[in-house]
Design brief:
By secondary structure, the protein is α/β, with parallel strands linked by helices. 53% of the residues lie in helices and 12% in strands. It has one domain: 3-Layer(aba) Sandwich (Rossmann fold), CATH 3.40.50.720. The chain contains eight helices and six strands. Helix 3 (78-108) packs parallel to helix 4.
Amino acid sequence: MAASGCRVVMVSNQQQELERCADELRSAYSAEIWPLYCDLARNEAVDELFGICQQKGLEIDILINNAGIFFFKELKGEVCEVGDKMLFLHVITPTRLCERFGEGMKARGRGYMLNVSSVTAGMSAPGLTMYAATKSYLRSFSKSLYYEMKPYGVGVTVVCPGAVSTGLYAVLPVLVKILKVAGKFGLVYSPEKLVRKALTAMFRRKRCKTPGWFNLLFAPAVNALPKRVVNRVWAKVSEKTEN
């Protein structure tokens, strides 16, 4: 977005990385950047962020909800505590951000919203119990909001990528190994490639974008697996993750 000449408000709970990235963008593109340190997995986050933008006189014409968290574990104990953050980042916060900033877009008669879901939104798989469910909400929410915002000249797009080569999956070493192999066959997207496809879809006002033929087939293929196969795979994966 900075390379396209946009003024950018960046929000993250990683303050040092946020400041460094903002400096790099200012240097590379002479862009106006506002780095805002904020933990979006809190009930007060949306009000704080909206208030800061109002104080600074910033009109948000493009809203990109990309904050997220990932874990691949059985739903129990400490996982439920992390799951609360996931619910905020994938469900509550993006919903509230779309509502708060969407009101201004509707009044101005223009704007774009881009929500990042996942190909797992169409899957039912152990280990992804909360992740897939929250991403499913984000996809359904966005596809419905598309119709509500269209009469006001505001576009709503949801992108449902498969694996992307970021640090998101570092929590599970075995998954990192699998993704490395998949990357050799072009089945894992680079962040830059995914961004290009997502922004193109957003500016074309597409309702939903699932990049790559493999990703279109992946969720139906997983759902078609016999239950006994899923049980066996999950038993082996659980054993490795616990060890």
